[in-house]
Specification:
The protein is mostly beta strands. Helices cover 9% and strands 45% of the residues.
């Protein structure tokens, strides 16, 4: 169910950029350049916002160039984040109900834990707060000794709504890299180029829709509610008046998220004309390889307070608008051969394996399968009939590689009346081998 959503926003902006060549053609300074940029944005939602960049490049020789810079970027809330009307959905809670007396593995050190108060020295205060949020009848039913509580995690209906008082997201970006060209006329090496760049990005005040756990933590964690009072977050947790179960949690868009990521991007290109190299074969061979290494991809829905979780190499993440499942590294390569008007090329995409997100917090053996490594190949051909007609053919998923099943229970017992579950990773091809053909005609 969703109510009608409407809203509008506007912005007035002014910006400028300047490129300053400081040195050129000097000994040990083939080029030294500075690039500056500034933008002022006046949003009717968040007010004035400043964005700027300071980039530079230095080339001591014609074949070596260093580059880098610092930028501060901003993103104002969009229409959905500002104006989304009350929308009911079903969301998962990994923490579980903090009022439960059975949960002994709840993360972040909050919750009732009445069954083992040593796990939480504030258990009595949590219990008192829980009783304040329930009717007298619900307290008796909820804490009935014969009740069976879930050990951790549950699905709960949430009521999502936009927030008019959001501020902008802020990002600080630092980059440093180099571009190297082969300093030789040797035909085997003259077509070789390498570009490598390090990046570090930090996003604060990230705009994201609160999860159910975020509201629960703001109500029951001493970090957010040191006096264990019925605060705003507690008021957004609706409980059944008869049995005390959570029946609805109101969640809002908020500036709570933080993202910290760093890594290295590299590109290698090489080409060779066989005639120039003295090989009796016509045509030209080309190779292009793009690789990415992620050193860190950490996120949190509650910045500065709840520690960030580094999801690199796992299926986790997806907070603050990011994509879940950050690979530790990825590879995309393309090789091509051109002779006359014809070109044939093959692409290779490699995705390494991922561990399941539950493995990060579980010191024992994994209980849910991760994602195995995956390779995908595509073949393409292009032919220029004449100056006006070009045709192309191709085969995607050349070897018909099926997507492997992931995220299933490793300890599933056959015949126990449960299903092992499982899903497919979004980076894997689910369509199988397919063919295409096309033509371009210029008039």
């Amino acid at each position: 169910p969703q109510a009608s959503t409407s809203g509008s926003t506007s912005v007035r902006e002014g910006y400028g950029e300047v490129f300053i060549p400081l040195l050129a053609g000097k000994p040990f300074a083939e080029a030294l350049n500075l690039e500056l940029g500034y933008r002022y944005s006046d949003y009717d939602s968040v007010g004035g916002v400043h964005t700027f960049k300071l980039n530079g490049e230095y080339a001591p020789t014609y074949w070596l160039r260093f580059r880098g810079g610092y930028q501060q970027a901003n993103r104002a809330p969009n229409l959905g984040e500002l104006f989304t009307a009350r929308t009911q959905t079903l969301r998962a809670s990994a923490d579980g109900d903090p009022c439960s007396t059975a949960i002994v593995t709840q993360p972040l050190g909050y919750g009732n834990y009445s069954a083992n108060s040593a796990l939480n020295t504030n258990a009595a205060k949590v219990l008192t707060l829980c009783q304040q949020l329930m009717t007298a009848e619900a307290v008796g039913q909820y804490y009935d000794q014969d009740r069976v509580f879930p050990t951790v995690g549950f699905n709960v209906p949430t009521l999502e709504v936009g927030a008019r008082q959001l501020s902008e997201e802020k990002a600080k970006v630092f980059t440093l890299g180099a571009v190297i060209s082969a300093p030789t006329e040797n035909p085997w090496l003259s077509g070789l180029n390498l570009a490598i760049d390090y990046y570090s990005i930090t996003i604060t005040d990230g705009i994201a829709l609160q999860g159910a756990d975020s509201v629960l933590r703001q109500c029951f964690s001493p970090i957010f509610n040191p006096n264990y009072e019925v605060n705003d977050a507690c008021g957004r947790i609706r409980r059944d008046t008869e049995n005390g179960n959570i029946e609805l949690i109101e969640v809002n868009y908020a500036n709570l998220g933080r993202v910290e990521t760093a890594g290295v991007d590299a590109n290698l290109s090489w080409s060779l004309r066989f005639d120039d190299a003295g090989i009796g074969i016509p045509g030209r061979f080309s190779l292009n390889v793009n690789a990415t290494y992620v050193d860190k991809f950490a996120t949190t829905p509650d910045q500065f307070v709840i520690p960030l979780t580094d999801w690199t190499g796992s299926t986790g993440g997806g907070e603050v608008g990011t994509q879940a499942g950050p690979f530790e590294w990825k590879l995309f390569a393309r090789a091509g051969y051109t002779v006359g008007p014809a070109t044939i090329g093959i692409q290779w995409q490699h995705y390494p394996s991922l561990v399941h997100s539950t493995t990060l917090a579980n010191t024992g053996a994994p209980t849910i399968s991760g994602v195995p490594s995956y390779d995908l190949f595509n073949l393409n051909l292009r032919y220029e009939v004449n100056d006006t007609i070009r045709v192309r053919f191709g085969v995607d998923n050349l070897f018909d590689k099926a997507p492997p099943l992931t995220a299933f229970r490793l300890n599933d017992v056959l015949g126990d009346q449960t299903l092992p579950g499982g899903s497919f990773n979004v980076n894997h091809d689910t369509l199988g081998r397919r063919f295409y053909a096309g033509a371009t005609v210029s008039f």
